[in-house]
User: Fold this.
Amino acid sequence: MINVGIAGATGMVGRTFLQVMEERHFPVDQLYLFASSRSKGTSIMFNGKEYMVEELNEDSFDKPMDIVLFSAGGDLSKKYAPIAKEKGIVVVDNSSAWRMEDWVPLIVPEVNSDAISEHQGIIANPNCSTIQSVIPLKPLYDRYGINRVVFSTYQSVSGSGIAGLEDLEKGLSTTYNNLYPHPIAYNVLPHIDSFLENGYTKEEMKMIDETRKILDDQNMRITATAVRVPVKYGHAVSASIELETAFELDEIFTLFKETDGIKVLDDLDNNIYPMPILAEGKDKVYVGRIRRDFSIDNGLNIWIVADNSRKGAATNTVQIAELLLNK
Ligand code: A2P
Assistant:
Protein backbone atom coordinates (compact mmCIF):
# COMPACT_ATOMS: atom_id res chain seq x y z
CA MET A 1 0.00 0.00 0.00
CA ILE A 2 1.34 3.42 -0.83
CA ASN A 3 0.51 7.04 -0.15
CA VAL A 4 -0.71 8.91 -3.21
CA GLY A 5 -1.21 12.59 -3.99
CA ILE A 6 -3.22 14.05 -6.85
CA ALA A 7 -2.48 17.60 -8.00
CA GLY A 8 -5.45 18.90 -9.99
CA ALA A 9 -7.83 16.45 -8.30
CA THR A 10 -10.97 18.43 -9.18
CA GLY A 11 -10.21 18.63 -12.92
CA MET A 12 -11.50 16.36 -15.65
CA VAL A 13 -8.34 14.22 -15.75
CA GLY A 14 -7.82 14.42 -11.96
CA ARG A 15 -11.27 12.96 -11.32
CA THR A 16 -10.63 10.29 -13.94
CA PHE A 17 -7.37 9.37 -12.12
CA LEU A 18 -9.49 8.52 -9.07
CA GLN A 19 -12.06 6.59 -11.08
CA VAL A 20 -9.35 4.56 -12.85
CA MET A 21 -7.47 3.88 -9.58
CA GLU A 22 -10.70 2.58 -8.04
CA GLU A 23 -11.45 0.37 -11.03
CA ARG A 24 -7.93 -1.07 -11.10
CA HIS A 25 -7.78 -1.54 -7.31
CA PHE A 26 -4.70 0.64 -7.06
CA PRO A 27 -3.35 -0.07 -3.56
CA VAL A 28 -3.79 3.35 -1.93
CA ASP A 29 -3.10 3.81 1.76
CA GLN A 30 -3.25 7.57 2.40
CA LEU A 31 -4.70 9.82 -0.33
CA TYR A 32 -4.07 13.57 -0.59
CA LEU A 33 -6.03 15.71 -3.04
CA PHE A 34 -4.86 19.13 -4.20
CA ALA A 35 -6.40 21.84 -6.39
CA SER A 36 -6.67 25.64 -6.42
CA SER A 37 -7.90 27.74 -3.48
CA ARG A 38 -11.31 27.78 -5.22
CA SER A 39 -11.74 24.08 -4.45
CA LYS A 40 -10.35 24.08 -0.90
CA GLY A 41 -12.70 22.04 1.30
CA THR A 42 -14.55 20.39 -1.58
CA SER A 43 -15.14 16.74 -0.79
CA ILE A 44 -14.45 13.92 -3.22
CA MET A 45 -15.31 10.25 -2.70
CA PHE A 46 -12.72 7.52 -3.29
CA ASN A 47 -13.30 3.84 -2.50
CA GLY A 48 -16.36 4.79 -0.45
CA LYS A 49 -14.48 7.28 1.71
CA GLU A 50 -14.73 11.07 1.67
CA TYR A 51 -11.58 13.15 1.14
CA MET A 52 -11.22 16.94 1.44
CA VAL A 53 -9.43 18.86 -1.29
CA GLU A 54 -6.54 21.00 -0.06
CA GLU A 55 -5.02 24.03 -1.71
CA LEU A 56 -1.83 23.16 -3.62
CA ASN A 57 1.13 25.09 -2.23
CA GLU A 58 4.82 24.69 -1.50
CA ASP A 59 4.11 22.86 1.77
CA SER A 60 1.84 20.29 0.14
CA PHE A 61 4.73 17.91 -0.41
CA ASP A 62 5.68 17.79 3.27
CA LYS A 63 2.91 15.20 3.54
CA PRO A 64 4.13 11.57 3.55
CA MET A 65 3.48 10.72 -0.10
CA ASP A 66 5.25 8.10 -2.25
CA ILE A 67 3.79 9.12 -5.62
CA VAL A 68 1.99 12.23 -6.85
CA LEU A 69 0.01 12.35 -10.09
CA PHE A 70 -0.12 15.82 -11.65
CA SER A 71 -2.78 17.14 -14.01
CA ALA A 72 -3.15 20.80 -13.15
CA GLY A 73 -1.53 22.33 -16.26
CA GLY A 74 2.06 22.77 -17.40
CA ASP A 75 2.89 25.88 -15.36
CA LEU A 76 1.98 24.24 -12.07
CA SER A 77 3.88 21.07 -13.02
CA LYS A 78 6.95 23.17 -13.81
CA LYS A 79 6.71 24.87 -10.45
CA TYR A 80 5.69 22.05 -8.12
CA ALA A 81 7.11 18.82 -9.61
CA PRO A 82 10.71 19.74 -8.60
CA ILE A 83 9.53 20.47 -5.04
CA ALA A 84 7.89 17.03 -4.82
CA LYS A 85 10.94 15.36 -6.37
CA GLU A 86 13.22 17.13 -3.88
CA LYS A 87 11.17 15.62 -1.06
CA GLY A 88 11.62 12.11 -2.52
CA ILE A 89 8.10 11.84 -3.98
CA VAL A 90 7.95 10.37 -7.49
CA VAL A 91 5.97 12.58 -9.87
CA VAL A 92 3.96 11.20 -12.79
CA ASP A 93 3.04 14.27 -14.81
CA ASN A 94 0.26 14.49 -17.37
CA SER A 95 1.26 17.94 -18.67
CA SER A 96 3.70 18.72 -21.48
CA ALA A 97 6.07 20.54 -19.08
CA TRP A 98 8.70 17.80 -18.68
CA ARG A 99 8.11 15.47 -21.63
CA MET A 100 11.02 16.48 -23.81
CA GLU A 101 13.66 16.77 -21.05
CA ASP A 102 16.34 14.16 -21.82
CA TRP A 103 16.40 12.84 -18.27
CA VAL A 104 12.62 12.41 -18.03
CA PRO A 105 11.19 9.08 -19.25
CA LEU A 106 8.14 9.49 -21.50
CA ILE A 107 6.18 6.31 -21.14
CA VAL A 108 3.40 4.31 -22.76
CA PRO A 109 3.52 1.06 -20.77
CA GLU A 110 2.58 -1.15 -23.75
CA VAL A 111 5.45 0.38 -25.76
CA ASN A 112 8.46 1.36 -23.64
CA SER A 113 7.91 0.35 -20.02
CA ASP A 114 11.65 -0.37 -19.63
CA ALA A 115 12.39 3.35 -19.81
CA ILE A 116 11.01 3.71 -16.29
CA SER A 117 14.13 2.14 -14.79
CA GLU A 118 16.08 5.32 -15.61
CA HIS A 119 13.70 7.74 -13.87
CA GLN A 120 15.11 10.46 -11.64
CA GLY A 121 11.94 11.44 -9.81
CA ILE A 122 9.79 12.80 -12.65
CA ILE A 123 8.08 10.64 -15.28
CA ALA A 124 6.01 12.15 -18.08
CA ASN A 125 2.75 10.94 -19.56
CA PRO A 126 2.67 11.65 -23.32
CA ASN A 127 0.23 13.74 -25.32
CA CYS A 128 -3.17 12.07 -25.77
CA SER A 129 -3.01 11.64 -29.57
CA THR A 130 0.58 10.42 -29.32
CA ILE A 131 -0.29 7.67 -26.82
CA GLN A 132 -2.98 6.12 -28.99
CA SER A 133 -0.80 6.41 -32.12
CA VAL A 134 2.42 4.82 -30.83
CA ILE A 135 0.63 1.69 -29.61
CA PRO A 136 -0.08 0.42 -33.17
CA LEU A 137 3.15 1.95 -34.55
CA LYS A 138 5.39 -0.02 -32.17
CA PRO A 139 4.70 -3.57 -33.50
CA LEU A 140 4.99 -2.24 -37.08
CA TYR A 141 8.29 -0.56 -36.24
CA ASP A 142 9.70 -3.71 -34.65
CA ARG A 143 8.64 -6.05 -37.44
CA TYR A 144 8.96 -4.00 -40.66
CA GLY A 145 10.74 -0.76 -39.79
CA ILE A 146 9.07 2.59 -40.50
CA ASN A 147 10.27 5.09 -43.11
CA ARG A 148 7.68 7.80 -42.70
CA VAL A 149 4.39 8.58 -40.96
CA VAL A 150 1.67 11.12 -41.81
CA PHE A 151 -0.69 11.78 -38.89
CA SER A 152 -4.01 13.60 -39.28
CA THR A 153 -5.98 13.93 -36.07
CA TYR A 154 -9.66 14.48 -35.30
CA GLN A 155 -9.63 15.53 -31.65
CA SER A 156 -12.59 15.95 -29.32
CA VAL A 157 -13.31 19.11 -27.33
CA SER A 158 -12.81 17.35 -23.98
CA GLY A 159 -9.10 17.57 -24.81
CA SER A 160 -9.51 21.25 -23.87
CA GLY A 161 -11.24 20.41 -20.56
CA ILE A 162 -14.59 21.71 -19.35
CA ALA A 163 -14.29 24.94 -21.36
CA GLY A 164 -14.05 22.99 -24.62
CA LEU A 165 -17.16 20.98 -23.80
CA GLU A 166 -18.96 24.23 -22.97
CA ASP A 167 -18.04 25.84 -26.30
CA LEU A 168 -19.49 22.83 -28.13
CA GLU A 169 -22.63 22.32 -26.05
CA LYS A 170 -23.68 25.96 -25.84
CA GLY A 171 -22.55 26.65 -29.40
CA LEU A 172 -25.03 24.13 -30.81
CA SER A 173 -27.99 26.35 -29.94
CA THR A 174 -26.49 29.84 -29.51
CA THR A 175 -23.59 31.87 -30.86
CA TYR A 176 -21.62 31.10 -27.67
CA ASN A 177 -17.91 30.73 -28.41
CA ASN A 178 -15.50 31.49 -25.63
CA LEU A 179 -12.44 29.21 -25.61
CA TYR A 180 -11.63 28.64 -29.26
CA PRO A 181 -10.88 31.44 -31.75
CA HIS A 182 -13.86 30.30 -33.88
CA PRO A 183 -17.05 28.36 -33.17
CA ILE A 184 -16.45 24.61 -32.79
CA ALA A 185 -20.14 23.70 -33.18
CA TYR A 186 -20.88 22.79 -36.82
CA ASN A 187 -17.22 23.40 -37.63
CA VAL A 188 -13.71 21.91 -37.56
CA LEU A 189 -10.61 23.86 -36.53
CA PRO A 190 -7.16 23.03 -37.95
CA HIS A 191 -5.69 24.60 -34.84
CA ILE A 192 -4.85 22.88 -31.51
CA ASP A 193 -2.60 24.72 -29.04
CA SER A 194 -0.61 27.70 -30.31
CA PHE A 195 1.07 28.28 -33.67
CA LEU A 196 4.86 28.11 -33.91
CA GLU A 197 7.27 29.88 -36.26
CA ASN A 198 7.56 26.81 -38.49
CA GLY A 199 3.83 26.97 -39.30
CA TYR A 200 2.95 23.92 -37.21
CA THR A 201 0.97 24.02 -33.98
CA LYS A 202 2.49 22.92 -30.67
CA GLU A 203 0.13 19.94 -30.68
CA GLU A 204 1.46 18.81 -34.07
CA MET A 205 5.08 19.14 -32.91
CA LYS A 206 4.24 17.20 -29.72
CA MET A 207 3.07 14.28 -31.88
CA ILE A 208 6.24 14.41 -33.96
CA ASP A 209 8.77 14.88 -31.13
CA GLU A 210 7.11 12.57 -28.62
CA THR A 211 6.65 9.72 -31.14
CA ARG A 212 10.36 9.89 -31.93
CA LYS A 213 11.26 9.88 -28.24
CA ILE A 214 8.97 6.96 -27.30
CA LEU A 215 10.05 4.82 -30.27
CA ASP A 216 13.63 5.92 -29.62
CA ASP A 217 14.29 6.94 -33.21
CA GLN A 218 15.22 10.60 -33.63
CA ASN A 219 15.46 10.24 -37.40
CA MET A 220 11.97 8.94 -38.06
CA ARG A 221 10.26 11.06 -40.70
CA ILE A 222 6.90 12.22 -39.33
CA THR A 223 4.47 14.98 -40.18
CA ALA A 224 1.18 15.85 -38.49
CA THR A 225 -1.96 17.95 -38.87
CA ALA A 226 -4.03 18.23 -35.68
CA VAL A 227 -7.69 19.18 -35.98
CA ARG A 228 -10.34 19.91 -33.36
CA VAL A 229 -13.74 18.42 -34.24
CA PRO A 230 -17.18 18.86 -32.62
CA VAL A 231 -17.07 15.56 -30.72
CA LYS A 232 -17.26 15.44 -26.91
CA TYR A 233 -15.01 12.50 -25.99
CA GLY A 234 -12.55 10.40 -27.99
CA HIS A 235 -9.80 11.32 -30.42
CA ALA A 236 -9.34 9.75 -33.86
CA VAL A 237 -6.08 9.62 -35.80
CA SER A 238 -5.59 8.71 -39.43
CA ALA A 239 -2.04 7.37 -39.85
CA SER A 240 -0.45 6.79 -43.25
CA ILE A 241 2.64 4.73 -42.67
CA GLU A 242 5.43 3.90 -45.10
CA LEU A 243 7.01 0.67 -43.89
CA GLU A 244 10.61 -0.19 -44.73
CA THR A 245 9.87 -3.71 -45.91
CA ALA A 246 7.04 -5.51 -47.69
CA PHE A 247 4.04 -6.76 -45.74
CA GLU A 248 0.87 -8.79 -46.17
CA LEU A 249 -2.34 -7.26 -44.91
CA ASP A 250 -3.36 -10.39 -43.03
CA GLU A 251 -0.03 -10.25 -41.13
CA ILE A 252 -0.90 -6.72 -40.03
CA PHE A 253 -4.32 -7.80 -38.78
CA THR A 254 -2.72 -10.64 -36.81
CA LEU A 255 -0.02 -8.36 -35.42
CA PHE A 256 -2.56 -5.82 -34.13
CA LYS A 257 -4.81 -8.54 -32.72
CA GLU A 258 -1.84 -9.85 -30.72
CA THR A 259 -0.76 -6.43 -29.47
CA ASP A 260 -1.50 -5.59 -25.84
CA GLY A 261 -3.84 -2.60 -25.57
CA ILE A 262 -5.31 -2.81 -29.10
CA LYS A 263 -8.74 -3.96 -30.18
CA VAL A 264 -9.17 -4.37 -33.92
CA LEU A 265 -12.56 -3.18 -35.22
CA ASP A 266 -12.54 -3.79 -38.93
CA ASP A 267 -15.51 -5.55 -40.50
CA LEU A 268 -16.48 -3.52 -43.53
CA ASP A 269 -19.42 -5.75 -44.55
CA ASN A 270 -21.09 -4.84 -41.27
CA ASN A 271 -19.94 -1.19 -41.17
CA ILE A 272 -17.72 -1.88 -38.20
CA TYR A 273 -14.81 0.47 -37.62
CA PRO A 274 -13.50 2.53 -34.69
CA MET A 275 -15.49 5.64 -33.70
CA PRO A 276 -15.29 7.98 -30.70
CA ILE A 277 -18.74 6.91 -29.47
CA LEU A 278 -17.47 3.34 -29.20
CA ALA A 279 -14.24 4.29 -27.42
CA GLU A 280 -15.80 6.64 -24.84
CA GLY A 281 -15.20 5.37 -21.30
CA LYS A 282 -12.94 2.54 -22.48
CA ASP A 283 -9.20 1.94 -22.12
CA LYS A 284 -8.45 0.13 -25.37
CA VAL A 285 -6.99 1.69 -28.49
CA TYR A 286 -9.31 0.79 -31.37
CA VAL A 287 -7.72 0.22 -34.78
CA GLY A 288 -9.54 -0.29 -38.06
CA ARG A 289 -9.82 0.71 -41.75
CA ILE A 290 -6.58 -1.26 -42.13
CA ARG A 291 -5.67 -1.08 -45.81
CA ARG A 292 -2.87 -0.54 -48.29
CA ASP A 293 -1.82 2.93 -49.35
CA PHE A 294 -1.60 2.16 -53.07
CA SER A 295 0.17 5.45 -53.80
CA ILE A 296 3.54 4.21 -52.46
CA ASP A 297 5.48 0.97 -51.96
CA ASN A 298 4.94 -0.65 -48.55
CA GLY A 299 2.26 1.92 -47.65
CA LEU A 300 -0.31 1.22 -44.94
CA ASN A 301 -3.28 3.33 -43.82
CA ILE A 302 -4.91 2.83 -40.43
CA TRP A 303 -7.56 4.63 -38.35
CA ILE A 304 -6.96 4.78 -34.59
CA VAL A 305 -9.51 5.84 -31.94
CA ALA A 306 -9.22 6.06 -28.13
CA ASP A 307 -10.77 7.90 -25.21
CA ASN A 308 -8.49 10.89 -24.69
CA SER A 309 -9.37 11.35 -21.02
CA ARG A 310 -8.74 7.66 -20.21
CA LYS A 311 -6.03 5.88 -22.29
CA GLY A 312 -4.91 9.29 -23.60
CA ALA A 313 -4.45 10.66 -20.07
CA ALA A 314 -5.65 9.15 -16.78
CA THR A 315 -5.38 5.42 -17.50
CA ASN A 316 -1.91 5.71 -18.99
CA THR A 317 -0.76 7.79 -15.99
CA VAL A 318 -2.15 5.25 -13.51
CA GLN A 319 -0.50 2.43 -15.51
CA ILE A 320 2.83 4.27 -15.15
CA ALA A 321 2.23 4.45 -11.39
CA GLU A 322 1.57 0.69 -11.43
CA LEU A 323 4.92 0.14 -13.17
CA LEU A 324 6.55 2.07 -10.33
CA LEU A 325 4.83 -0.16 -7.79
CA ASN A 326 6.06 -3.29 -9.50
CA LYS A 327 9.58 -2.00 -9.85
P1 A2P B 1 -9.74 23.96 -9.52
O1 A2P B 1 -10.86 23.01 -9.81
O2 A2P B 1 -9.70 24.35 -8.07
O3 A2P B 1 -9.66 25.12 -10.46
P2 A2P B 1 -9.02 21.01 -15.92
O4 A2P B 1 -7.83 20.61 -16.76
O5 A2P B 1 -10.14 20.03 -16.02
O6 A2P B 1 -9.43 22.42 -16.13
O7 A2P B 1 -8.49 20.92 -14.38
C1 A2P B 1 -7.41 21.64 -13.92
C2 A2P B 1 -7.07 21.22 -12.49
O8 A2P B 1 -5.98 22.03 -12.05
C3 A2P B 1 -8.20 21.45 -11.51
O9 A2P B 1 -8.17 20.49 -10.49
C4 A2P B 1 -7.87 22.82 -10.97
O10 A2P B 1 -8.38 23.10 -9.69
C5 A2P B 1 -6.36 22.72 -10.87
N1 A2P B 1 -5.78 24.04 -10.80
C6 A2P B 1 -5.95 25.08 -11.65
N2 A2P B 1 -5.27 26.18 -11.21
C7 A2P B 1 -4.66 25.81 -10.06
C8 A2P B 1 -3.81 26.48 -9.11
N3 A2P B 1 -3.44 27.76 -9.27
N4 A2P B 1 -3.38 25.78 -8.03
C9 A2P B 1 -3.74 24.49 -7.87
N5 A2P B 1 -4.53 23.80 -8.72
C10 A2P B 1 -4.99 24.45 -9.80
Q: What stands out?
A: The longest helix spans residues 128-144. The two ends are 14 Å apart (CA to CA). The first strand starts at residue 2 and ends at 7.
